[in-house]
Design brief:
Porin; 196 residues; 10 strands; 64% strand; eight-stranded antiparallel beta barrel; mainly beta
Length: 196
């Protein structure tokens, strides 16, 4: 799935580079700018008679409250299904809503490093197991942003520090708490940004 997102980012980069050749100004951010970004992904895996599919979409919108700081809102949806020789094993989905804050080290430049802190509320359901859960996530990630034209940028981030808690939605259920720290290069997230 990461390869699919990377390929999409490269395609957008190529398209916008062709359009950007006529422009003399390459973008950057400044106070008052509004931007939208996000990611879309689809993956499938087959092992013998076992088939699994996952789809996710996660748009976000941000606003520069100062020269270096942006704040925004995000939503997300993930769907996961799995079947073995036509017999459904899993049919689950998850919704997320959250807020994020970013600090850009050189936002007015074509290339900038940033750090992002995000907080999400999640709610999910496995329809076949008739199981529901709610959760809460906090994550910190560094990233890079590169403008390919006045309004379009590509970005990449990698998760480094995170905490999550989930609890099934039934009486007497125990919560599951997770704390993660580390640099996993297989968990790099690519996205496209449009600045208004």
């Amino acid at each position: 799935m990461k390869k699919l997102l990377f390929t999409a980012a490269i395609a957008v980069l190529g398209f916008t580079s062709v359009n950007a050749q006529e422009e003399t100004t390459v973008g950057g951010f400044e106070k008052g700018d509004v931007f939208v970004s996000g990611s879309v992904g689809f993956g499938t895996e087959n092992t013998g008679d076992l088939d699994s599919n996952v789809f996710n979409i996660a748009p976000k919108v941000g606003y520069f409250v100062s020269e270096n700081i942006a704040a925004g809102l995000k939503v997300g949806y993930t769907s996961f299904s799995s079947d073995n020789d036509g017999t459904d094993l899993v049919d689950a989905n998850e919704f997320a809503v959250g807020a994020f804050g970013r600090y850009y080290f050189s936002p007015a430049n074509q290339f900038s490093l940033f750090t992002e802190l995000g907080v999400d509320y999640t709610s999910g359901e496995d329809k076949l197991a008739d199981a529901k859960y709610d959760g809460f996530d906090v994550a910190f990630a560094p990233g890079i942003s590169y403008f390919v034209s006045k309004n379009f940028a590509i970005e990449a981030s990698v998760g480094v520090l995170g905490y999550s808690t989930t609890k099934p939605d039934f009486s007497g259920a125990e919560s599951t708490d997770s704390f993660n720290i580390g640099l996993d290069l297989s968990d790099i997230n690519f996205g496209v940004v449009y600045k208004f």
